[in-house]
Amino acid sequence: MRTRWCGELGIGDVGEAVELCGWVARRREHSAHLAFVDLRDRTGIVQCVVDGAADLRAEYVVRVTGTVTARPEGTVNPSLATGQVEVSGCAVEILNEAEPPPFSLEEWSEADEAIRLRYRFVDMRRERLQKNLVMRSTINAAIRASMFAQGFTEVETPLLWTPTPEGAREFAVPSRLQQGSFYVLPQSPQIAKQLLMVAGVDRYYQIARCLRDEDLRADRQFEFTQLDIEASFVGVEDVLGFVEEAVLDAVEAVTGARPEVPVRMTWREALERFGTDKPDLRYGMELTDLAEVLAGTGFNAFKAEAVRAICVPGAADSSRSKLDGLVERAKSLGAAGLVWMRVVAPAGDDTATEPRAKVADLESPVAKFLSDDERNGIVAACGAKPGDLLLVVAGEHDRACRVLGQLRVDLGRPPVAEGGLRFVWVTEFPLFDGLDEEGNPMAAHHPFTMPHADDLDLLGKDPLSVRSLAYDLVLNGWELGSGSIRIHRADIQSQVFATLGISEEEAEERFGFLTGAFRYGAPPHGGFAVGLDRLTALLAGEENIREVIAFPKTQSGADPMTGAPKPLADRSLRELGIGILPPKR
Ligand code: ASP
Q1: Ligand 1 centroid to 207 CA: how many Å?
Q2: Is the pLDDT of residue 30 over 90?
Q3: Which domain holds residue 536?
Q4: Are 404 and 309 in contact, with CB atoms under 8 Å apart?
Protein backbone atom coordinates (compact mmCIF):
# COMPACT_ATOMS: atom_id res chain seq x y z
CA MET A 1 0.00 0.00 0.00
CA ARG A 2 2.97 2.34 0.28
CA THR A 3 6.27 3.13 -1.34
CA ARG A 4 8.15 4.77 1.54
CA TRP A 5 8.26 5.20 5.33
CA CYS A 6 7.35 8.59 6.79
CA GLY A 7 10.37 8.99 9.06
CA GLU A 8 13.02 8.32 6.43
CA LEU A 9 12.15 11.12 3.99
CA GLY A 10 14.78 13.82 3.59
CA ILE A 11 16.21 16.41 1.29
CA GLY A 12 17.63 13.70 -0.98
CA ASP A 13 14.11 12.56 -1.83
CA VAL A 14 12.88 15.90 -3.17
CA GLY A 15 10.91 15.40 -6.38
CA GLU A 16 9.90 11.82 -5.59
CA ALA A 17 6.24 10.86 -5.81
CA VAL A 18 5.49 8.87 -2.67
CA GLU A 19 2.68 6.81 -1.22
CA LEU A 20 2.62 6.76 2.59
CA CYS A 21 0.43 5.06 5.18
CA GLY A 22 -0.07 5.81 8.83
CA TRP A 23 -1.96 7.72 11.50
CA VAL A 24 -2.84 11.40 11.61
CA ALA A 25 -0.64 12.77 14.38
CA ARG A 26 -1.85 16.30 14.04
CA ARG A 27 -3.75 18.46 11.59
CA ARG A 28 -3.91 22.20 11.13
CA GLU A 29 -6.33 24.01 8.84
CA HIS A 30 -4.28 26.72 7.11
CA SER A 31 -7.14 28.10 5.03
CA ALA A 32 -10.28 26.74 3.51
CA HIS A 33 -8.08 25.34 0.77
CA LEU A 34 -4.97 24.21 2.57
CA ALA A 35 -4.35 21.90 5.54
CA PHE A 36 -1.19 20.55 7.12
CA VAL A 37 -1.34 16.93 8.22
CA ASP A 38 1.45 15.35 10.26
CA LEU A 39 1.50 11.72 9.25
CA ARG A 40 3.01 9.15 11.62
CA ASP A 41 4.16 5.60 11.09
CA ARG A 42 6.56 3.51 13.16
CA THR A 43 9.58 5.33 11.75
CA GLY A 44 8.52 8.89 12.54
CA ILE A 45 6.49 11.85 11.34
CA VAL A 46 6.39 13.81 8.09
CA GLN A 47 4.35 16.87 7.27
CA CYS A 48 1.88 16.53 4.39
CA VAL A 49 0.26 19.51 2.66
CA VAL A 50 -3.28 18.80 1.56
CA ASP A 51 -5.12 20.95 -0.95
CA GLY A 52 -8.71 21.45 0.07
CA ALA A 53 -10.21 20.88 3.47
CA ALA A 54 -9.55 17.30 4.46
CA ASP A 55 -12.08 15.92 6.88
CA LEU A 56 -9.49 14.31 9.12
CA ARG A 57 -9.24 13.84 12.85
CA ALA A 58 -6.38 12.81 15.09
CA GLU A 59 -5.43 9.13 14.79
CA TYR A 60 -7.45 8.50 11.64
CA VAL A 61 -5.74 5.80 9.58
CA VAL A 62 -4.89 7.15 6.14
CA ARG A 63 -3.01 6.59 2.91
CA VAL A 64 -1.42 9.70 1.45
CA THR A 65 -0.01 10.22 -2.03
CA GLY A 66 2.03 13.30 -2.89
CA THR A 67 5.43 14.64 -3.87
CA VAL A 68 8.39 15.28 -1.59
CA THR A 69 9.35 18.95 -1.72
CA ALA A 70 11.84 21.09 0.17
CA ARG A 71 10.12 23.23 2.77
CA PRO A 72 9.99 26.93 1.91
CA GLU A 73 12.66 29.09 3.56
CA GLY A 74 11.81 29.85 7.19
CA THR A 75 9.53 26.86 7.66
CA VAL A 76 12.24 24.22 8.18
CA ASN A 77 11.66 22.41 11.49
CA PRO A 78 15.01 21.41 13.02
CA SER A 79 13.38 19.44 15.84
CA LEU A 80 11.84 16.98 13.38
CA ALA A 81 14.02 14.40 11.59
CA THR A 82 12.12 15.03 8.35
CA GLY A 83 11.88 18.76 9.07
CA GLN A 84 13.63 19.90 5.88
CA VAL A 85 10.92 18.49 3.63
CA GLU A 86 7.19 18.09 3.33
CA VAL A 87 4.97 16.07 1.05
CA SER A 88 2.90 18.42 -1.06
CA GLY A 89 -0.05 18.20 -3.39
CA CYS A 90 -1.38 15.35 -1.28
CA ALA A 91 -4.45 13.26 -1.84
CA VAL A 92 -5.68 11.53 1.31
CA GLU A 93 -7.59 8.28 1.40
CA ILE A 94 -9.20 7.50 4.75
CA LEU A 95 -8.62 3.82 5.53
CA ASN A 96 -10.32 3.97 8.90
CA GLU A 97 -11.76 6.50 11.27
CA ALA A 98 -10.73 6.68 14.91
CA GLU A 99 -12.13 7.93 18.17
CA PRO A 100 -10.17 10.73 19.82
CA PRO A 101 -7.16 9.21 21.65
CA PRO A 102 -7.59 8.93 25.44
CA PHE A 103 -4.47 11.04 26.03
CA SER A 104 -2.21 13.25 23.99
CA LEU A 105 0.44 11.42 21.98
CA GLU A 106 2.24 14.60 21.04
CA GLU A 107 5.04 14.45 23.53
CA TRP A 108 6.07 12.24 26.40
CA SER A 109 3.54 13.20 29.02
CA GLU A 110 3.52 10.85 31.98
CA ALA A 111 -0.17 10.25 31.49
CA ASP A 112 -1.61 8.30 34.38
CA GLU A 113 -0.09 4.81 34.35
CA ALA A 114 -3.43 3.02 34.50
CA ILE A 115 -4.72 5.02 31.52
CA ARG A 116 -1.56 4.42 29.52
CA LEU A 117 -1.76 0.70 30.13
CA ARG A 118 -5.54 0.58 29.57
CA TYR A 119 -4.88 1.98 26.08
CA ARG A 120 -1.45 0.46 25.60
CA PHE A 121 -2.13 -0.04 21.88
CA VAL A 122 -2.38 3.75 21.55
CA ASP A 123 0.44 4.44 24.01
CA MET A 124 2.81 2.29 21.96
CA ARG A 125 2.33 4.47 18.88
CA ARG A 126 4.70 6.96 20.47
CA GLU A 127 8.18 7.21 19.10
CA ARG A 128 9.84 6.38 22.39
CA LEU A 129 8.08 3.04 22.83
CA GLN A 130 8.43 2.17 19.15
CA LYS A 131 12.18 2.73 19.43
CA ASN A 132 12.40 0.65 22.58
CA LEU A 133 10.57 -2.28 20.98
CA VAL A 134 12.83 -2.16 17.94
CA MET A 135 15.88 -2.02 20.22
CA ARG A 136 14.64 -5.03 22.11
CA SER A 137 14.21 -6.94 18.89
CA THR A 138 17.72 -5.92 17.78
CA ILE A 139 19.13 -7.21 21.07
CA ASN A 140 17.31 -10.54 20.74
CA ALA A 141 18.49 -10.97 17.16
CA ALA A 142 22.12 -10.20 18.08
CA ILE A 143 21.99 -12.58 21.02
CA ARG A 144 20.59 -15.41 18.92
CA ALA A 145 23.26 -14.86 16.30
CA SER A 146 25.98 -14.75 18.95
CA MET A 147 24.87 -17.88 20.79
CA PHE A 148 24.41 -19.78 17.56
CA ALA A 149 27.87 -18.73 16.41
CA GLN A 150 29.29 -19.91 19.73
CA GLY A 151 27.89 -23.36 19.07
CA PHE A 152 24.85 -23.23 21.36
CA THR A 153 21.57 -25.00 20.62
CA GLU A 154 18.30 -23.16 21.30
CA VAL A 155 15.94 -25.45 23.20
CA GLU A 156 12.47 -24.51 24.44
CA THR A 157 11.66 -25.80 27.90
CA PRO A 158 8.12 -26.24 29.30
CA LEU A 159 6.05 -23.45 30.81
CA LEU A 160 3.81 -25.94 32.60
CA TRP A 161 6.40 -27.17 35.02
CA THR A 162 7.03 -27.97 38.62
CA PRO A 163 8.59 -25.93 41.43
CA THR A 164 12.09 -24.67 40.62
CA PRO A 165 14.70 -23.82 43.22
CA GLU A 166 15.11 -20.08 42.66
CA GLY A 167 13.42 -19.33 45.96
CA ALA A 168 10.78 -16.86 44.78
CA ARG A 169 7.02 -17.30 45.19
CA GLU A 170 5.57 -19.20 42.23
CA PHE A 171 2.49 -18.99 40.03
CA ALA A 172 0.41 -22.14 40.07
CA VAL A 173 -1.80 -23.45 37.26
CA PRO A 174 -4.60 -25.87 38.19
CA SER A 175 -4.77 -29.14 36.28
CA ARG A 176 -8.17 -29.99 34.79
CA LEU A 177 -7.36 -33.63 34.16
CA GLN A 178 -5.91 -34.23 37.61
CA GLN A 179 -8.08 -32.11 39.83
CA GLY A 180 -6.39 -30.85 42.95
CA SER A 181 -2.97 -30.97 41.28
CA PHE A 182 -1.08 -28.00 39.95
CA TYR A 183 1.60 -27.10 37.50
CA VAL A 184 3.98 -24.33 38.45
CA LEU A 185 5.13 -21.70 35.98
CA PRO A 186 8.94 -21.74 35.89
CA GLN A 187 10.88 -19.10 37.80
CA SER A 188 13.64 -20.06 35.41
CA PRO A 189 14.48 -23.07 33.27
CA GLN A 190 17.11 -24.00 35.88
CA ILE A 191 16.28 -27.66 36.37
CA ALA A 192 15.32 -28.26 32.76
CA LYS A 193 18.61 -26.87 31.51
CA GLN A 194 20.62 -28.96 33.94
CA LEU A 195 18.73 -32.02 32.69
CA LEU A 196 19.67 -30.97 29.15
CA MET A 197 23.30 -31.23 30.24
CA VAL A 198 22.74 -34.78 31.48
CA ALA A 199 21.10 -35.33 28.09
CA GLY A 200 24.32 -34.39 26.32
CA VAL A 201 23.03 -31.20 24.64
CA ASP A 202 26.27 -29.70 25.95
CA ARG A 203 25.57 -26.09 25.03
CA TYR A 204 22.03 -24.84 25.55
CA TYR A 205 20.51 -21.40 25.34
CA GLN A 206 17.04 -19.97 25.29
CA ILE A 207 15.47 -16.55 25.31
CA ALA A 208 13.26 -17.69 28.14
CA ARG A 209 10.19 -16.26 29.81
CA CYS A 210 10.42 -16.59 33.58
CA LEU A 211 7.66 -15.99 36.10
CA ARG A 212 7.96 -14.99 39.74
CA ASP A 213 5.09 -13.93 41.95
CA GLU A 214 7.05 -11.21 43.73
CA ASP A 215 6.16 -7.59 44.46
CA LEU A 216 6.63 -5.42 41.39
CA ARG A 217 9.23 -2.65 41.26
CA ALA A 218 10.79 -0.40 38.65
CA ASP A 219 13.15 -3.19 37.67
CA ARG A 220 10.84 -6.13 38.25
CA GLN A 221 7.68 -7.50 36.61
CA PHE A 222 5.93 -10.83 37.25
CA GLU A 223 7.12 -12.11 33.91
CA PHE A 224 10.47 -11.29 32.52
CA THR A 225 12.81 -12.50 29.82
CA GLN A 226 16.25 -13.97 30.29
CA LEU A 227 18.98 -15.11 28.01
CA ASP A 228 19.39 -18.48 29.71
CA ILE A 229 22.58 -20.47 29.14
CA GLU A 230 24.02 -23.78 30.29
CA ALA A 231 27.17 -25.55 29.12
CA SER A 232 29.00 -28.79 29.95
CA PHE A 233 32.66 -29.46 30.67
CA VAL A 234 33.26 -25.82 31.50
CA GLY A 235 34.64 -23.74 34.33
CA VAL A 236 33.86 -20.21 35.50
CA GLU A 237 36.03 -18.57 32.86
CA ASP A 238 34.27 -20.36 30.01
CA VAL A 239 30.83 -19.28 31.17
CA LEU A 240 31.88 -15.67 31.68
CA GLY A 241 33.36 -15.75 28.19
CA PHE A 242 30.14 -17.00 26.54
CA VAL A 243 28.00 -14.42 28.30
CA GLU A 244 30.41 -11.57 27.69
CA GLU A 245 30.47 -12.32 23.98
CA ALA A 246 26.68 -12.38 23.67
CA VAL A 247 26.06 -9.29 25.78
CA LEU A 248 28.77 -7.23 24.12
CA ASP A 249 27.50 -8.32 20.69
CA ALA A 250 24.01 -7.16 21.68
CA VAL A 251 25.26 -3.80 22.94
CA GLU A 252 27.31 -3.32 19.79
CA ALA A 253 24.27 -4.11 17.63
CA VAL A 254 22.35 -1.34 19.39
CA THR A 255 24.99 1.35 19.92
CA GLY A 256 27.33 0.64 17.02
CA ALA A 257 30.31 0.46 19.40
CA ARG A 258 31.68 -2.45 21.39
CA PRO A 259 31.83 -1.51 25.08
CA GLU A 260 34.84 -2.26 27.24
CA VAL A 261 34.96 -5.82 28.54
CA PRO A 262 33.59 -6.11 32.09
CA VAL A 263 36.08 -5.61 34.89
CA ARG A 264 36.39 -8.42 37.44
CA MET A 265 35.89 -8.13 41.15
CA THR A 266 35.23 -10.66 43.88
CA TRP A 267 32.10 -10.24 45.96
CA ARG A 268 34.29 -9.39 48.95
CA GLU A 269 36.09 -6.64 47.05
CA ALA A 270 32.77 -5.21 45.80
CA LEU A 271 31.50 -5.04 49.37
CA GLU A 272 34.72 -3.45 50.65
CA ARG A 273 34.97 -0.83 47.92
CA PHE A 274 31.34 -0.10 47.04
CA GLY A 275 29.33 -1.50 49.93
CA THR A 276 27.20 -3.60 47.60
CA ASP A 277 27.28 -6.63 45.31
CA LYS A 278 25.98 -4.39 42.52
CA PRO A 279 28.76 -1.82 42.16
CA ASP A 280 28.07 1.14 39.89
CA LEU A 281 31.45 2.10 38.44
CA ARG A 282 30.23 5.22 36.69
CA TYR A 283 31.27 7.37 39.64
CA GLY A 284 33.79 7.39 42.48
CA MET A 285 32.94 7.91 46.15
CA GLU A 286 34.42 4.51 47.06
CA LEU A 287 34.42 3.45 50.68
CA THR A 288 37.52 4.26 52.73
CA ASP A 289 38.71 2.04 55.57
CA LEU A 290 39.58 4.20 58.57
CA ALA A 291 40.75 1.30 60.77
CA GLU A 292 44.42 2.24 60.59
CA VAL A 293 43.90 5.94 61.20
CA LEU A 294 41.66 5.25 64.19
CA ALA A 295 43.55 2.25 65.56
CA GLY A 296 44.29 3.93 68.88
CA THR A 297 41.32 6.26 69.10
CA GLY A 298 39.93 7.31 72.44
CA PHE A 299 36.52 8.03 70.90
CA ASN A 300 34.25 5.18 71.93
CA ALA A 301 31.85 5.35 68.99
CA PHE A 302 34.78 4.64 66.65
CA LYS A 303 36.02 1.59 68.61
CA ALA A 304 34.11 -0.79 66.39
CA GLU A 305 34.67 -3.84 64.19
CA ALA A 306 34.75 -1.50 61.20
CA VAL A 307 34.88 2.24 60.62
CA ARG A 308 34.29 3.24 57.02
CA ALA A 309 33.71 6.51 55.24
CA ILE A 310 32.63 7.95 51.95
CA CYS A 311 33.56 11.37 50.64
CA VAL A 312 30.81 13.36 48.93
CA PRO A 313 32.54 15.91 46.72
CA GLY A 314 31.50 19.52 47.23
CA ALA A 315 28.74 18.70 49.70
CA ALA A 316 30.21 20.42 52.79
CA ASP A 317 27.66 23.19 52.50
CA SER A 318 24.75 20.76 53.00
CA SER A 319 22.21 22.22 55.40
CA ARG A 320 21.73 20.89 58.91
CA SER A 321 18.35 19.46 57.98
CA LYS A 322 19.87 17.65 54.99
CA LEU A 323 22.57 16.20 57.27
CA ASP A 324 19.96 15.20 59.86
CA GLY A 325 18.09 13.49 57.03
CA LEU A 326 21.21 11.50 56.13
CA VAL A 327 21.61 10.39 59.74
CA GLU A 328 17.99 9.19 59.74
CA ARG A 329 18.49 7.42 56.43
CA ALA A 330 21.58 5.60 57.80
CA LYS A 331 19.62 4.51 60.85
CA SER A 332 16.74 3.26 58.73
CA LEU A 333 19.32 1.19 56.82
CA GLY A 334 20.41 -0.43 60.06
CA ALA A 335 23.35 1.70 61.22
CA ALA A 336 23.56 2.71 64.88
CA GLY A 337 24.37 6.19 63.66
CA LEU A 338 26.13 8.29 61.08
CA VAL A 339 28.86 10.83 61.69
CA TRP A 340 29.16 13.69 59.22
CA MET A 341 32.27 15.81 58.86
CA ARG A 342 32.52 18.95 56.79
CA VAL A 343 36.00 19.35 55.34
CA VAL A 344 36.97 23.01 55.56
CA ALA A 345 40.10 24.90 54.59
CA PRO A 346 42.26 25.57 57.61
CA ALA A 347 42.16 29.18 58.77
CA GLY A 348 44.43 31.45 56.72
CA ASP A 349 44.53 29.13 53.69
CA ASP A 350 41.26 29.14 51.81
CA THR A 351 42.91 28.56 48.44
CA ALA A 352 44.11 25.03 49.11
CA THR A 353 42.36 22.54 46.90
CA GLU A 354 44.71 19.55 46.88
CA PRO A 355 44.34 16.69 49.34
CA ARG A 356 46.82 17.44 52.09
CA ALA A 357 48.31 15.29 54.76
CA LYS A 358 48.98 18.35 56.87
CA VAL A 359 46.41 20.43 58.60
CA ALA A 360 42.79 20.15 57.49
CA ASP A 361 39.90 21.23 59.57
CA LEU A 362 36.90 19.08 60.14
CA GLU A 363 33.65 20.59 61.25
CA SER A 364 31.72 17.86 62.94
CA PRO A 365 29.82 17.21 66.16
CA VAL A 366 32.55 14.66 67.01
CA ALA A 367 35.60 16.71 65.95
CA LYS A 368 36.47 17.54 69.55
CA PHE A 369 36.83 13.83 70.40
CA LEU A 370 39.47 13.28 67.72
CA SER A 371 43.17 14.10 67.92
CA ASP A 372 44.83 16.34 65.33
CA ASP A 373 46.54 13.31 63.83
CA GLU A 374 43.25 11.46 63.58
CA ARG A 375 41.54 14.39 61.91
CA ASN A 376 44.37 14.86 59.43
CA GLY A 377 44.56 11.11 58.89
CA ILE A 378 40.85 10.87 58.08
CA VAL A 379 41.06 13.68 55.52
CA ALA A 380 44.15 12.16 53.91
CA ALA A 381 42.79 8.61 53.84
CA CYS A 382 39.60 9.83 52.14
CA GLY A 383 41.52 12.02 49.67
CA ALA A 384 39.17 14.82 50.72
CA LYS A 385 39.54 18.49 50.00
CA PRO A 386 37.93 21.58 51.47
CA GLY A 387 34.29 21.71 50.46
CA ASP A 388 33.79 17.95 50.64
CA LEU A 389 31.56 16.13 53.08
CA LEU A 390 32.64 12.93 54.83
CA LEU A 391 30.11 10.40 56.05
CA VAL A 392 31.40 7.85 58.56
CA VAL A 393 29.71 4.69 59.81
CA ALA A 394 31.13 2.52 62.59
CA GLY A 395 29.87 -0.90 63.58
CA GLU A 396 29.62 -4.45 62.35
CA HIS A 397 31.68 -4.77 59.17
CA ASP A 398 29.24 -5.89 56.48
CA ARG A 399 26.49 -3.65 57.76
CA ALA A 400 28.72 -0.56 57.93
CA CYS A 401 29.80 -1.22 54.33
CA ARG A 402 26.24 -1.76 53.12
CA VAL A 403 24.88 1.38 54.76
CA LEU A 404 27.59 3.50 53.16
CA GLY A 405 27.08 1.66 49.88
CA GLN A 406 23.44 2.74 49.86
CA LEU A 407 24.28 6.34 50.83
CA ARG A 408 26.79 6.37 47.99
CA VAL A 409 23.99 5.41 45.59
CA ASP A 410 21.54 7.90 47.13
CA LEU A 411 24.00 10.78 46.83
CA GLY A 412 26.08 9.92 43.80
CA ARG A 413 24.18 7.86 41.27
CA PRO A 414 23.94 9.59 37.88
CA PRO A 415 20.75 9.32 35.80
CA VAL A 416 20.35 6.05 33.87
CA ALA A 417 21.26 7.54 30.51
CA GLU A 418 24.52 9.15 31.70
CA GLY A 419 28.05 7.96 32.42
CA GLY A 420 28.44 5.28 29.76
CA LEU A 421 28.15 1.50 30.19
CA ARG A 422 30.31 0.03 32.96
CA PHE A 423 30.03 -3.74 33.15
CA VAL A 424 31.41 -5.64 36.16
CA TRP A 425 31.71 -9.34 36.85
CA VAL A 426 31.25 -9.98 40.55
CA THR A 427 32.63 -13.43 41.38
CA GLU A 428 32.97 -15.74 44.36
CA PHE A 429 29.63 -14.94 45.94
CA PRO A 430 29.09 -16.50 49.35
CA LEU A 431 27.38 -19.88 49.06
CA PHE A 432 24.89 -18.99 51.79
CA ASP A 433 23.15 -15.76 52.61
CA GLY A 434 22.30 -15.55 56.31
CA LEU A 435 20.18 -17.92 58.38
CA ASP A 436 16.49 -18.74 58.12
CA GLU A 437 14.04 -18.76 61.05
CA GLU A 438 15.14 -22.25 62.02
CA GLY A 439 18.80 -21.23 62.04
CA ASN A 440 19.68 -23.02 58.79
CA PRO A 441 21.85 -21.24 56.23
CA MET A 442 19.91 -20.11 53.15
CA ALA A 443 21.23 -20.67 49.62
CA ALA A 444 22.45 -17.37 48.22
CA HIS A 445 21.89 -18.45 44.61
CA HIS A 446 20.23 -21.88 44.49
CA PRO A 447 21.05 -25.19 46.16
CA PHE A 448 22.87 -26.60 43.10
CA THR A 449 25.64 -24.00 43.24
CA MET A 450 29.13 -25.45 43.54
CA PRO A 451 31.07 -24.42 46.64
CA HIS A 452 34.54 -22.99 46.07
CA ALA A 453 36.99 -25.92 46.04
CA ASP A 454 39.17 -24.27 48.74
CA ASP A 455 36.21 -23.91 51.11
CA LEU A 456 34.71 -27.42 50.97
CA ASP A 457 35.92 -28.32 54.46
CA LEU A 458 34.22 -25.19 55.88
CA LEU A 459 30.76 -26.49 54.91
CA GLY A 460 30.24 -28.23 58.22
CA LYS A 461 32.24 -25.82 60.39
CA ASP A 462 31.55 -22.29 59.24
CA PRO A 463 29.02 -22.38 56.39
CA LEU A 464 28.47 -18.62 56.20
CA SER A 465 32.11 -18.10 55.21
CA VAL A 466 32.00 -20.62 52.35
CA ARG A 467 32.56 -18.98 48.97
CA SER A 468 30.86 -20.35 45.87
CA LEU A 469 31.46 -20.57 42.16
CA ALA A 470 28.58 -18.14 41.61
CA TYR A 471 28.95 -14.88 39.75
CA ASP A 472 26.83 -11.90 38.74
CA LEU A 473 27.04 -9.55 35.81
CA VAL A 474 26.38 -5.96 36.88
CA LEU A 475 25.81 -2.96 34.64
CA ASN A 476 25.75 0.58 36.07
CA GLY A 477 24.59 -0.67 39.45
CA TRP A 478 21.88 -2.99 38.11
CA GLU A 479 22.18 -6.74 38.49
CA LEU A 480 21.94 -7.93 34.90
CA GLY A 481 22.16 -11.60 35.70
CA SER A 482 23.58 -14.43 37.75
CA GLY A 483 24.93 -17.88 37.28
CA SER A 484 27.15 -20.52 38.73
CA ILE A 485 29.05 -23.72 38.23
CA ARG A 486 26.69 -26.46 39.45
CA ILE A 487 27.24 -29.37 41.74
CA HIS A 488 27.41 -32.51 39.61
CA ARG A 489 28.61 -34.90 42.31
CA ALA A 490 26.12 -36.59 44.61
CA ASP A 491 28.39 -36.45 47.69
CA ILE A 492 28.83 -32.67 47.53
CA GLN A 493 25.13 -32.18 46.80
CA SER A 494 24.18 -34.21 49.89
CA GLN A 495 26.56 -32.13 52.01
CA VAL A 496 25.01 -28.89 50.74
CA PHE A 497 21.45 -30.15 51.23
CA ALA A 498 22.40 -31.17 54.76
CA THR A 499 23.88 -27.73 55.48
CA LEU A 500 20.71 -26.11 54.14
CA GLY A 501 18.69 -28.23 56.53
CA ILE A 502 17.00 -30.07 53.65
CA SER A 503 16.45 -33.66 54.71
CA GLU A 504 17.10 -36.53 52.32
CA GLU A 505 13.37 -37.18 51.99
CA GLU A 506 12.65 -33.52 51.27
CA ALA A 507 15.47 -33.35 48.73
CA GLU A 508 14.14 -36.48 47.08
CA GLU A 509 10.64 -35.08 46.98
CA ARG A 510 11.59 -31.60 45.69
CA PHE A 511 14.53 -32.27 43.41
CA GLY A 512 14.55 -36.05 43.11
CA PHE A 513 13.98 -35.97 39.37
CA LEU A 514 17.16 -33.92 38.98
CA THR A 515 19.42 -35.65 41.48
CA GLY A 516 18.07 -38.98 40.24
CA ALA A 517 19.01 -38.06 36.67
CA PHE A 518 22.49 -37.15 37.88
CA ARG A 519 23.04 -40.81 38.77
CA TYR A 520 22.98 -41.58 35.04
CA GLY A 521 26.12 -39.61 34.19
CA ALA A 522 26.06 -35.87 34.90
CA PRO A 523 28.88 -33.92 33.28
CA PRO A 524 30.48 -30.98 35.12
CA HIS A 525 28.42 -28.00 34.00
CA GLY A 526 27.54 -24.39 34.69
CA GLY A 527 25.50 -21.54 33.30
CA PHE A 528 24.06 -18.12 33.52
CA ALA A 529 20.96 -16.01 32.90
CA VAL A 530 20.95 -12.40 31.68
CA GLY A 531 17.88 -10.24 32.30
CA LEU A 532 16.97 -8.87 28.90
CA ASP A 533 14.35 -6.42 30.14
CA ARG A 534 16.98 -4.75 32.30
CA LEU A 535 19.62 -4.78 29.60
CA THR A 536 17.21 -3.19 27.13
CA ALA A 537 16.07 -0.60 29.67
CA LEU A 538 19.65 0.43 30.42
CA LEU A 539 20.52 0.69 26.74
CA ALA A 540 17.35 2.67 26.07
CA GLY A 541 18.07 4.98 29.02
CA GLU A 542 14.83 4.00 30.75
CA GLU A 543 14.49 3.97 34.55
CA ASN A 544 11.56 1.57 34.42
CA ILE A 545 11.57 -1.76 32.57
CA ARG A 546 7.88 -1.21 31.83
CA GLU A 547 8.94 1.11 29.01
CA VAL A 548 10.68 -1.71 27.14
CA ILE A 549 7.85 -4.24 27.54
CA ALA A 550 4.92 -4.19 25.14
CA PHE A 551 2.25 -5.20 27.63
CA PRO A 552 3.50 -4.74 31.20
CA LYS A 553 1.50 -4.94 34.40
CA THR A 554 0.85 -2.08 36.80
CA GLN A 555 2.59 -1.85 40.16
CA SER A 556 -0.23 -3.89 41.67
CA GLY A 557 0.16 -6.64 39.09
CA ALA A 558 -2.97 -5.80 37.12
CA ASP A 559 -3.47 -5.37 33.39
CA PRO A 560 -5.92 -2.49 32.97
CA MET A 561 -6.32 -3.34 29.27
CA THR A 562 -7.59 -6.90 29.58
CA GLY A 563 -8.75 -6.61 33.18
CA ALA A 564 -6.56 -9.53 34.23
CA PRO A 565 -6.52 -11.05 36.75
CA LYS A 566 -10.26 -11.72 36.69
CA PRO A 567 -12.58 -14.16 38.46
CA LEU A 568 -13.23 -17.37 36.52
CA ALA A 569 -16.78 -18.35 35.60
CA ASP A 570 -18.32 -20.90 37.99
CA ARG A 571 -18.42 -23.46 35.20
CA SER A 572 -14.67 -23.18 34.65
CA LEU A 573 -14.01 -23.42 38.35
CA ARG A 574 -16.10 -26.57 38.62
CA GLU A 575 -14.25 -28.07 35.68
CA LEU A 576 -10.98 -27.41 37.51
CA GLY A 577 -12.35 -28.72 40.77
CA ILE A 578 -11.72 -25.39 42.47
CA GLY A 579 -13.83 -23.66 45.11
CA ILE A 580 -13.08 -20.08 46.14
CA LEU A 581 -12.77 -19.29 49.85
CA PRO A 582 -14.36 -16.08 51.11
CA PRO A 583 -11.91 -13.15 50.84
CA LYS A 584 -9.44 -12.83 53.72
CA ARG A 585 -10.37 -10.05 56.09
N1 ASP B 1 18.55 -19.79 37.07
C2 ASP B 1 19.37 -18.70 37.53
C3 ASP B 1 18.53 -17.45 37.65
O4 ASP B 1 17.51 -17.33 37.01
C5 ASP B 1 20.48 -18.39 36.63
C6 ASP B 1 21.49 -19.49 36.55
O7 ASP B 1 21.99 -19.92 37.59
O8 ASP B 1 21.82 -19.88 35.44
O9 ASP B 1 18.90 -16.55 38.39
Answers
A1: 13
A2: no
A3: 128-260+532-574
A4: yes
